[in-house]
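Researcher: Quick test of sequence recovery. Tokens follow.
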């Protein structure tokens, strides 16, 4: 089932409706994990907040921030199969490199282990693809699939100005202006939790 949440707290837009961003780390820690991997961790935001976390990213610009910066194949050599309690994939599997290597990530997860997923709704990520991956990798929906949308009209002017000042291309700026002008969603995500079958 997909629910659209149009009038939600902007700070919570990228999380499941049952998750609270202010205590998300505590929520993950409550599972008493031996090993958590944040795939595509970027600047490693969850480091020292989530216990036993390794932040991994394949992008060299995060050297010195991520715990491990290397290819998926090289990282795979350092992780035993079925040794990970929790995987965080919070927007990290939207690029082709990550999508191509998801099977490696799923192989690291223990039976009963959990995955927190957030992906952009696009040609690859749709309801059918998510259902197919669930079957292919023996995963159950632990928290139901939700569709979350960000409407720029819900943001304060200062946040919109900040967003405009950080865009890299004129196409991105045009997309912001279009979203504001006609009130369409600027970003749409799918958010859910998986659990690996025992």
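Model:
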């Amino acid at each position: 089932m997909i629910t659209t949440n149009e009038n939600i707290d902007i700070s919570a837009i990228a999380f499941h409706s049952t998750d609270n961003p202010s205590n998300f780390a505590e929520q993950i820690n409550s599972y008493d994990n031996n090993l958590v991997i944040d795939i595509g961790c970027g600047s490693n935001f969850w480091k020292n907040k989530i216990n036993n976390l390794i932040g991994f990213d394949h992008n060299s610009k995060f050297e010195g921030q991520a715990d491990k910066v290397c290819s998926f194949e090289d990282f795979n050599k350092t992780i035993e199969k079925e040794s990970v309690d929790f995987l965080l994939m919070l927007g990290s599997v939207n690029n082709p490199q990550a999508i191509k290597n998801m099977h490696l990530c799923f192989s690291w997860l223990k039976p009963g282990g959990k995955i927190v997923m957030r992906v952009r709704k696009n040609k690859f990520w749709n309801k059918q693809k998510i259902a197919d991956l669930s079957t292919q990798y023996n995963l159950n929906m632990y928290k139901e699939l939700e569709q979350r949308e960000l409407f720029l009209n819900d943001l304060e002017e200062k946040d919109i100005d900040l967003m405009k000042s950080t865009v890299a291309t004129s196409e991105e700026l045009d997309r912001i202006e279009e979203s504001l002008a006609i009130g369409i969603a600027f970003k749409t995500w799918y958010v859910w939790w998986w659990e690996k079958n025992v």
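The chain has one domain: 4-151+187-196.
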